[in-house]
Amino acid sequence: MDATLQRDSTPPGPGRTMRPRAVLKLVATTTSPSSGERDVRLDDWMVAVATRQDREAFAALFAHFAPKLKGWLWKTGSTSEEAEEITQDAFVIVWRKAAQFDPARASVGSWLFTIARNLRIDRRRAIHDTWTALDDAEVQGIVDAGVGQEDALSQRQYDERVRLAMARLNHDQRQLVQLSFYEDMSHSRIAAELKMPLGTVKTRLRAAAACLRKLLEECRP
Amino acid sequence: MIRHHPDDSLLLAHAGGSLDTGPSLLVESHVETCPRCRAVMQGFERVGGQMLELAQDQPPAAGALDAVLARLDAPVRVPPPPVVRQKPPLPAGYNWPRALRHCQVSSWRLMGPGMRWSRVTVPHDPGANVLLLRIAAGKCLPQHTHTGTELTQVLCGSFDDGRAVFGPGDFDEADTEVLHQPVVQAQGECICLAAVDGRLVFESWIARLASNVVGL
Q1: Which CATH code is given to the segment(s) A35-151?
Q2: Averaged confidence pLDDT in chain B
Q3: Would the CB atoms of B58 and A83 count as touching at under 8 Å?
């Protein structure tokens, strides 16, 4: 008789509560990792890159994020060729600046997002030496150095809640928030895109951004 | 104590990377001194991270990982910092925003009694309309409205424009609806960084003449 069956025969108590959780976990891992677990894994890979220059972990990060990053860059205004180049450049910076990644302050995804965003801005500025991308990565290490490592877990919960916050925006608000991440998306272009008067776009953008900020404040750890 | 912050939509656009040069420089100058807005920006950047997670995959080119791995051991080429002329001094205790580190700042030019201005040239976008205003204690800017949006970040001193008092670190956004006449408080001169999209429209003839000379 194995341990699990034995536990099944015991009356309801602390022992019994373990089984449903174990089943839940099994179900979760056989489909796709839950977001929480996935994030832990991403952080672990990032730490391995930062502390041991672990190329396997780096390759794992690349496999996870490179298609997403390329897809996001393409969707928000880059050509396919540029998206490819920025993606590769971003991962070179991830390697070089890995020691500055702080899981207590950013998720791997949001860190990579800021690196890629800055690389694209630098390209537009015809600055080929990636000033902004490097500068910002440095600033990140300095500015909020006070946040302790012990906060990393609650930071991961924060990310999960950011997901929920976005889901709580209504359709129009979500659309306006997304457009704020598109390249060259001036208010007048958004107005043309959504066939709305410019004043209306400004008012709605303000309301959508304020709503998102409040939702994020509620979920900050 | 900072009391006036950029609107959330400006912070969101800055986090998203979709803001023009001038406004972006202004928001950056504010965020670097304002913990509140830095936290808001970090929240918005997390949203960016989530959007990355939700983006539809586009497979990288064949051999992309190998190409990246091959670059990892290449010596890091540190670009020489751009040559920037020394900026004019600020009153004791105040520093130029880090956001301006690559910008050229011209020397102070007189635009009226107790009013000086200086052009900020952004190396990658010389057309961006960014300037500094330096107004002596107790002086006021001529009453004006704007053909576009005017963003202002107070670097030192303070002014009252009839709507509110703006002090060091405060940020203001004035658009075509706002007709204001900023008055610098008596305690000392006020230096502001401003980004103007469109032209300032001064009410009086002399002021209009001055604005033509200045090119505002």
Answers
A1: 1.10.1740.10
A2: 85
A3: yes
